[in-house]
C-alpha cells in the first residue's frame, strides 16, 4: 500500500469549498478526510451533520473541533481496547490543545463573540435556535467559522504527517 500524501493546502481548499457550499463546520472538516479513511463524503457528511454550530447549533464545542474528534475516532482503531481508547483520548486532547492555542477557545459561542457580560458580571444567556443563518457575504465577512475550519484541517493534516 502506498503511503498517503497529505497536501495541506489542497485539503484546506477542499474544506473551504465544502463550507461555502453550505456544509457545517464539522462536516467540512470531516468530509475533507473521507478518502483517508475509505468512506464516502456522503457518509462522513451524515456522521458529522449534528455537530455543526457548536453541536446542534447550541454554541457549545466548535464544530471544527468536533470534526477532528470524529477523525481521531476513525484513526484510533477498534474498541473496546484500552490501548486504543487511551491513544484516542491522547490524540483528541492534543488536537484540542493545538486548536485552543491557535484560536483561544474550543467553544463556539466564545469564538463567535456571543458571550456578553451583564452588569452583574454574569454572562447573559444566548438565544439558541435550530434555524441556521443564511449564508450571505455578510455571514462570511463577520464569522470566524471558515477560519476555524481551516485551522482544524491544518492541525489534522499535521497530525497525519
Task: Give the gist of this structure.
The protein is mainly alpha-helical and 161 residues long.
List keywords for this structure.
161 residues, 8 helices, globular, mainly alpha
Structure description:
The protein has 161 residues and is mainly α. The protein is 57% helix and 0% strand. Helix 4 (63-75) runs parallel beside helix 8. The protein is globular, with a radius of gyration of 16 Å.
Beta fraction: under 5%
Number of DSSP helices?
8
Rough shape?
globular
Straight-line distance between termini: 16 Å
* Total E-strand runs: 0
Task: Report the C-alpha radius of gyration, rounded.
Answer: 16 Å
- Structural class call reads mainly alpha
Order of helices and strands: HHHHHHHH
Indicate the low-confidence ranges by residue numbers: none
Kindly state the mean pLDDT as a whole number? 94
Largest beta-sheet characterization: none
Percentage of residues assigned to helices: 55-70%
